[in-house]
Hints:
The structure holds 2 protein chains of 2 kinds. Chain A is built from 14 helices and 9 strands. By secondary structure, chain A is an alpha+beta fold. Chain A has a 6-stranded mixed barrel with strand order 2-3-7-4-6-5. The longest helix of chain A is centred in the C-terminal third of the chain and has 44 residues, at 269-312. Chain A starts with a helix and ends with a helix. By secondary structure, chain B is of the alpha/beta class. Chain B has a single domain (3-226), classed as Rossmann fold. In chain B, 34% of the residues lie in helices and 28% in strands. Chain B contains 7 helices and 10 strands. The radius of gyration of chain B is 17 Å and the shape is globular. The two termini of chain B are 24 Å apart. Classes of the chains: A alpha+beta, B alpha/beta.
Amino acid sequence: MKRNLSVILQLFLRSARLQKKRATLTIASLAWGTVTILMLLAFGEGLKRQMTANEQAMGNNLAILWPGETSKPYKGMPEGRSIRPRLEDIDYARERMPELDAIWGELTSWRTAIAYGRKTVNGRVIGTRWDYGDARKHFPKARGRFINPNDQDEKRRVVFLGNEMAKDVFGPEDPLGKTILINNSPFTVIGVMQRKRQSSTYGGPDANHAVIPQETFKAVLGDDKLNVLVFRVKKAEDMPAALQHLNEVLGPRLGFDPQDTRVFGVWDTVKGQKMTEKILTGLEIFFGVIGALTLIIGGVGVANIMYAVVKERTKEIGVKMALGARRSWITGPFILEGLVYTLVGGLVGAIIAILIVTGLSYVPIEGNDALEFMGHPTLSWPIGIATVAILGTCGLLAGYFPARRAAGIDPASTLRYE
Amino acid sequence: MTSIIEMNAIRKIYDTGKVQVEALKEIDLVVGKGEFVAIVGPSGSGKSTLMNLIGCLDTPTSGTYRLGGEDVSKFTRDELADVRNRRVGFVFQGFNLLPQITAFENVEMPLLFGGVAPKKRRERVQELLTRVGLGDRMDHKPTELSGGQMQRVAIARALAMQPDVVLADEPTGNLDTSAGGDIMQLFTELWQQGSTLVVITHDMSLARRAGRVVEIRDGRIVRDGEAAA
């Protein structure tokens, strides 16, 4: 065994020394294939992560419910009744639904005059609870904060601004601590939202609205009928049950049949996220397949070259056999050649891909529309493992078939003088 | 006299699917140590088949073949490879040197297969190439050598593992008269130094140098005796 390996190695080194150009070209083609597959997969992975992040910028495990009309008669009341929950209905549901992480209602005032100094803009103002902030990823910029329970209980006139709205109202000025007029009532700016890339919204992007405590909203704008009702479940898989539970809790209180699924227009983001995830995984697989095909073409190319080499060296192989080379000493160097080329090519390709990905990671995402959508190409372990598996297959393919052909050579027939 | 080659009722049938060709019919052949045997016969007589069998490049359909005392008729491919390495030295009409490597490396090849240590290999190759008169051409590639020189490299290669028998197939067939004469002279010297030689040839001047001539026709030995004067 040891002797076999040593002979194979010596024969391989001899032939490799003679075939530098071929080795270089083969390695280059495999390196190219590896770069292609790694970059495709890295772009796929980056896209997946970025799109997931964009989608989840609104928050995750959320259900958004728009109150509507009943579609079933209930306790003598006809169908077609309009259902508008109020703030206290939310508190009622919160007490009875421990599976929820948070539940809040949103009071919305569209096109509300917001003034600072001489400047007035019309914008969307939301009145809601303090726990909206974390669940909806309204993270404040430095020194600012979101609405807290005290603001809510004391009906303070404070406002948290979306970053775009802050820019519209204040321009380059720092809004923190400044007083603005909302519907002619003064409010103190307590925080401005950090910039985020958001791909899903209801009502509009978070960057363009202002959030005030719900009790303050009720007092200043005089409305407490909820425009929308949102909750977040602790575990994503609880979502369908939680939606049903909410109907059971609110149905008798608001006067609709708990089995009436048309009272609320429901957006189940868990379902949506699953769907997106599936699409993105599909996309990744698609990229992977394209990459794999590219790489396999490289592998087939190598196999083809080696086939030609076997054919060209038929006589040599016959001579070696006559001189006493065992079968494995003929096949070994070919298989080794295939594997070494693939390994070195793969390694070179991986290094190039890592350099490209690392280089791209220094390109800032912010303000770059393409990158905000696609994200940075990202290499991950599954990508690495997949590439290694494909490369390994190529290596074996490239070595095994030509080797088998070489082993099948009949020395007697090749040695005859022609 | 110890026998090196002992063939007993050897038959070789090539089965091409449609027809069966009986290339060798009941061959009995014994070659003793130190003999110089020329095998002659017209083309198609079965000479090459016999050479392949003697050289363990092929196995007989039936019969027994003992080479250096080992029954090789039922050996596996790898076992045959080892036997070829240890017991047979080949010299071909077309030289069959590996074109991309030097004379030195060509002669070294069987020693590499035979598991000889690198230092010993070097000594042995130098000794052999000097013996065939190419001590100064070791680093030349076959393309840089004349036909006669190539054949001498091939002979050095055949002798590398000190085989039981040197098997030559038309060794002078591809050479001009003068180079052919040199090779014949070299074979005669090898014989005188004790090597066992089996030469397949059309060349009657080479056959005459052999101590014994075996003539084959239609797969049978039709004459076996001392070379005619």
